[in-house]
Specification:
The protein is α+β, with helices and mostly antiparallel strands. It folds into five domains: 6-113, GIY-YIG endonuclease, CATH 3.40.1440.10; 121-261, no CATH class; 273-382, Nucleotidyltransferase, domain 5, CATH 3.30.420; 400-555, UvrC, RNAse H endonuclease domain (Nucleotidyltransferase, domain 5, 2-Layer Sandwich), CATH 3.30.420; 567-614, DNA polymerase, domain 1. Helix 9 runs antiparallel to helix 10 and helix 12 (357-384) crosses helix 13. The chain is elongated. 30% of the residues are buried.
Length: 617
């Protein structure tokens, strides 16, 4: 690491030489989704929160350069010991979430965040005769905050609506009961223009004022429909009285409120105090993501890892995770949203698995984060320990294909012919989940006449495994037959002749729907389309197709060439190969001059070839 250098007040570039292996592994598994990234120091504290349209590009920009023009950036990158991500649906959601997390955690390196960047809130002030106004700062003084609002225009529409319906004070006088009784204040202009009922002078009672405040609280909690209905009434009345400009103003306010109703996932006035949990599992590992939603905004997010000990169900793991995370974050939310219902009821808490709406979107976002963390962790394991990936893949295939042993050695077979001729077979081989191309084999069909794929499959299976048995070579753990029930039955008949049925696992894969057939089972199995097991089987099939088709084309080409030259009396195979080597094709031989033919194969044979192709000219 080079030290920073300053010359005459001008900061020179600084070079970063290395980073930890842990950070390297994280950078290799970054997603390209929009979201928020959080940097942690070695003590586990958040030191920076940022947003990105593409998390991979944005986070990599901190680590892809060797030099930095800012000491702040250098110190930030030097301090990063861990990276955590929160994936969002859109960049807009990421922007608001970034603001909430910065206000919640106040990371050291987010000092450049200005107040004017924070989204505004509507506050109902905790005081006698409460004022209602907007603010960009939340103060813990007992006041009630609503928001944050992504649209300032929407916020002012709401405040303007409140001002029209409820005559609330705007002054900051200390309206205590004693001050009012002593008549310390006089009404101002707001009273005379009927924007205020004069509580400062005792002209409005506190119960009457508080009734209006309670109604406003309900309105700000999300009852937008009543606001729109009221504006509709005002618009129609104004239009009926030919006050079209005023009606247009009401129409514009209605349009803004209608846009507000199509709210984002992050901000939702209908979701006020909710905990969201989602679980993603794979074998003995589970990750549970937790989102804490207050006043429609995500203020905290956490993902924890759970290791199964006794093959616990997802419901049991969800119960443990909910108890742990609610205690860790001191949550008292009375509603919990989940993607898997826990296996026991929680006292005084309503737990639901939403199917539609904003709550469903929140659960989906939480699951995306849990699933991403799971994939990221597995990818890191695979990068640090390649054998871990192999073991995991083979174990997954063993489970999916109901095998007694791991499929370390897999052989896949296919056959083909061209209009009943040139029948061939091919075999691809995967060892430890990867192609072993040196083990691939071709088979020229010897005992089958005509286009009989089943008989051809019987022949190549019998020849392959009879040879392994005779040479006392190890057998594969899995045989994959490219074809449905018919091809599979043909292969099984050969295994029975060799007394190998039941000693080697064998399956067939049909082409159309990727159906997996097992011996003796007429109903096919459908593997997960995105699962690794099906991908490996498809790779095996693609490899055997490629390998077999190449061999088939070569054989057809050789047979075609042989037929053309064999029609010339006195010209054998060796001479034909010399001609093809020199003139590249049969056409080249047929158009060659006598002199060139003599130079290639001698005078006597050259005369025979030349006469054969030129006798009719």
């Amino acid at each position: 690491m080079y030290q920073s250098v300053t010359l005459h007040g001008v900061y020179c570039c600084i070079k970063l030489l290395s980073r930890t292996a842990h950070i390297d592994s994280l950078l290799k598994t970054l997603p390209q989704n929009p979201g928020v990234y959080q940097y942690f120091n070695k003590e586990g504290s958040i030191i920076y929160v940022g947003k990105a349209k593409n998390l991979k590009k944005r986070v990599m920009s901190y680590f892809s350069k060797d030099t930095f023009d800012s000491n702040k950036t250098l110190m930030l990158v030097k301090s990063i010991a861990d990276i955590k991500l929160i994936i969002t649906e859109t960049e807009h959601d990421a922007l608001l979430l970034e603001s909430n997390l910065i206000k919640k955690h106040q990371p050291r390196y987010n000092v450049s965040l200005k107040d004017d960047k924070a989204y505004p809130w509507i506050v109902v002030k905790n005081e006698a005769f409460p004022r209602i106004f907007y603010t960009r700062k939340k103060i813990k003084d007992g006041s009630i905050y609503f928001g944050p609002y992504t649209s300032v225009k929407t916020l002012f529409v709401l405040l303007d609506f409140i001002k029209q319906i409820y005559q609330l004070r705007t002054c900051n006088l200390q309206l205590t009961a004693q001050n009012i009784a002593q008549q310390k204040f006089k009404v101002c202009l707001e009273y005379h223009i009927k924007n205020c009922k004069g509580p400062c002078a005792g002209l409005q009672s506190k119960p009457d004022y508080d009734q209006g405040i309670n109604e406003i609280n309900e309105l700000l909690k999300g009852n937008i429909h009543s606001v729109i209905s009221h504006f509709n009434t005002l618009m129609k009345n104004a239009a009926a009285d030919y006050r079209f400009e005023e009606a247009q103003l009401f129409k514009e306010k209605i349009e803004v409120l209608e846009m507000y109703k199509s709210k984002s996932v992050i901000v939702s006035p209908n979701i006020t105090n909710v905990d969201v949990f989602a679980i993603a599992t794979q074998k003995d590992t589970a990750f549970v993501n937790y989102l804490k939603v207050i006043n429609g905004a995500i203020v905290q997010a956490q993902t924890i890892e759970l290791k199964k000990k006794l093959d616990e169900t997802d419901a049991e793991l969800m119960t443990l995770a909910i108890a742990e995370l609610r205690m860790r974050f001191d949550s008292d939310a009375s509603e919990i949203l989940v993607n898997v219902l826990p296996d026991m009821a929680l006292p005084k808490v309503f737990v639901t698995e939403p199917k539609i709406g904003d709550k469903k979107h929140l659960v989906e976002m939480s699951y995306k984060n849990a699933r991403y963390t799971l994939k990221e962790k597995l990818a890191q394991y695979d990068l640090l320990n390649p054998q871990h990936k192999t073991d995991r893949l083979l174990a997954q295939m063993q489970t999916d294909l109901r095998m007694p042993v791991l499929p370390v050695h897999i052989e896949c077979f296919d056959n083909s012919n061209f209009q009943g001729t040139d029948a061939v077979g091919a075999m691809s081989v995967f060892i430890n989940g990867k192609p072993a191309k040196k083990e691939y084999r071709h088979f020229n069909i010897k005992t089958v006449t005509g286009p009989d794929d089943f008989a051809s499959m019987q022949e190549i299976i019998y020849r392959r495994y009879s040879r392994l048995l005779n040479d006392k070579l190890p057998l594969p753990q899995l045989i994959v037959i490219d074809g449905g029930k018919g091809q599979l039955s043909a292969a099984l008949s050969s295994l029975e002749k060799l007394n190998l049925r039941g000693k080697i696992s064998i399956i067939g894969i049909a082409k159309k729907l990727e159906e997996i057939y097992f011996p003796g089972d007429s109903v096919p199995m459908y593997l997960d389309k995105k699962g690794e097991t099906l991908k490996i089987i498809q790779q095996l099939r693609d490899e055997v197709h490629r390998f077999g088709i190449t061999h088939h084309r070569n054989k057809r080409s050789k047979n075609f060439i042989k037929t053309q030259l064999d029609n010339i009396p006195g010209i054998g195979r060796v001479t034909a190969e010399m001609l093809l080597s020199e003139f590249k094709s049969v056409k080249g031989v047929s158009t060659a001059s006598l002199e060139n033919l003599i130079a290639c194969i001698g005078k006597s044979k050259a005369q025979i070839v030349y006469s054969y192709y030129n006798s009719s000219k």
